[in-house]
Amino acid sequence: MSLSLKPKLLSLILLLLTSPTIIPVTGNQVDIDQFGHYDGAGGLKTQGRCEVVTIPMCKDMPYNETFWPNLMGQATQEEAGYEVHQYYALVKLQCSPALKAFICTLFVPICTALQQALPPCRSLCETARTGCEHVMMTFGFAWPENLECSKFPPNHELCVNGDISPGSTVDLTPPKNPYLTDPTYRSSFEPAKLPAVGKGLTCPVDWHVPEHSIADELHDCGIPCNLFSDKEKQIASIVVIIVAALTLISSMFTINTALLDPTRFQYPERAIVHLAVCYALLAVGYIVGGLWSSEINCHDEFLVFGPGMASCSLVFMFVYFCTMASHIWWVLLSFTWYLSAGLKWGGEAIAAYSLYFHLSAWGLSAFLAMAAVALQYAEGDPLGGPCALGMQRSNQLQYFMLYPLLTLLSIGTLFFILGFLALFRIRRAIKRSSTITSTTEMISAGGQRSLLWDQQHETNLVARSGAARLELLMARIGVFSILYTVPAAVFLGSLFYLSTPTAPNGVLTSIIGSSRLKRDNQMLFVVLLVRYISNLCFGSALVFWFGVRKH
């Protein structure tokens, strides 16, 4: 025996004189496997409670709350404290830096959000045994059978990790985002409480990530990429690709029609062609987002938040630009429609201002898109769409999308209403002028129709034909405006829900405020799908304008 070991053994003898003897517990102690609640992968499945750690040897561990009953079947800390104290001498001897962590996490398990006791990893047990078993054998004691290391889960399963080398200190820090590596059981081993917000919500432990925030309320909190299952993402991607493909086909049909007969498209109809260009490009952006959703939207297992991947920023800028441009061209369509119907402007007179129309639509959209990217507002989509302003940037979503689009929708609707009122006045005037003088008044004294009657009759036929064409035009414009207004209003409604994610009925409240295994993400799933479809479906309706035959 080396001289350097003798002082430690003398200290151990003195500690043993004042401490209970270290013996393998085989009586009242319950073996992990015999206890039946530890399944080797998930921890203790019995419903229990969390308590503040009171056992002296474990009070300075990196956590301050423990779960009961523990992994050894003990229901109180008083009962477990007696067993823990048996290893006090070995801990003081410092035969292994892992011993204290192993004993405490076994008898005084960490309280986690899963509400179940998590076992120490096999590597933690083996490190403790390697360092202390030979000391125990020196005094005639063997390593307890109920602490056999093979009974504990390997490191890749859910357990308290301990990658310890000889002479090092115990590191209880979990692997990077361990709760994201197992789709069934996740937890955080960090006991520190995350910031609470005024609504009483706290960031879920598996959402904790630095430099992220949700709605500027939950700080150091981000949305993980596996918020939805692979099946849900696949369904959403299929829906997005199908709707985007229909929009692309409809838009390309409109564009090809305009290219084949350019003279047919004078203002205000020419604005519809520019709308088709916007929706064709928008459809391409959604198809790219649907096909490569995971690659574009995720970074380090969390949704992109601000500066992340260049691909996300590019797709975001492209989709945002096309979305804003399409709504601005809708306002220009309604405005030119009012100039034509209400103020009696001709197509050439309106076309003289086309340069300003293009600067307004493309220039303003480009400026807003570049500003959003420069301010790092790009955000990954959790389901199956392209990067966009979303729940993590709820305030920016309101100021950069919700309010501008609401303003554009209101202005466009106002001009369309004014145009319709002008058409109604024209219609009444035409019908008034087409009133036929009674036949008896137009017949001469000799019983023959006068020349005046024939002229009046021909004029009435022309007026009635003009009134019929005007009514058809009003019907087309009315249906066309409804096909835009309804999806646009639904799109704004989805943006509103996404911009208030932590409100009492918000899309994240039912997720954040529930335990991980009971999170209900169906409302968010529906809102996101509605957002995709409503933003694209008007492009699919563009073909309606040219599909209805003119008379």
Describe the structure concisely for a colleague.
Residues 1-46, 163-198 and 436-448 have low confidence and may be disordered. The chain has helices at 5-18, 32-35, 77-85, 88-93, 99-107, 122-138, 230-260, 270-291, 293-297, 310-341, 347-351, 354-374, 394-433, 439-442, 451-499, 509-512, 522-547; strands at 49-52, 65-68, 208-214, 218-221, 298-299, 302-303.
Structure description:
The chain is built from 17 helices and 6 strands. The chain has a two-stranded antiparallel ribbon. Strands 3-4 form a two-stranded antiparallel ribbon. The chain has a two-stranded antiparallel ribbon with strand order 5-6. The protein has 2 domains: 176 residues, Frizzled cysteine-rich domain (Orthogonal Bundle); 280 residues, Up-down Bundle (Rhopdopsin 7-helix transmembrane proteins), CATH 1.20.1070. The N terminus is likely disordered. 54% of the residues lie in helices and 4% in strands. With 551 residues, it is mainly α. It is rod-shaped, with a radius of gyration of 37 Å.
Helix content: 40-55%
How much of the residues is beta strand, in percent?
Answer: under 5%
- Number of H/I helices: 17
The CATH homologous superfamily of the largest domain is called Rhodopsin 7-helix transmembrane proteins
Kindly, what is the distance between the CA atoms of the first and last residues, rounded to a whole number of angstroms? 110 Å
Main β-sheet: number of strands, strand sense, barrel status?
A: 2 strands, antiparallel
What is the domain tally?
A: 2
CATH topology heading of the largest domain:
Rhopdopsin 7-helix transmembrane proteins
Structural class: mainly alpha
- Strand/helix succession: HHEEHHHHEEHHHEEHHHHHHHH
Just name the CATH architecture of the largest domain: Up-down Bundle
* Widest sheet: strand ordering: 1-2
Q: Give the strand tally.
A: 6
Q: Unreliable stretches, pLDDT < 50, 5 or more residues?
A: 1-46, 163-198, 436-448
Using only CA atoms, what is the Rg? 37 Å
Question: In one word, what is the shape?
Answer: rod-shaped
Per CATH, the class of the largest domain reads Mainly Alpha
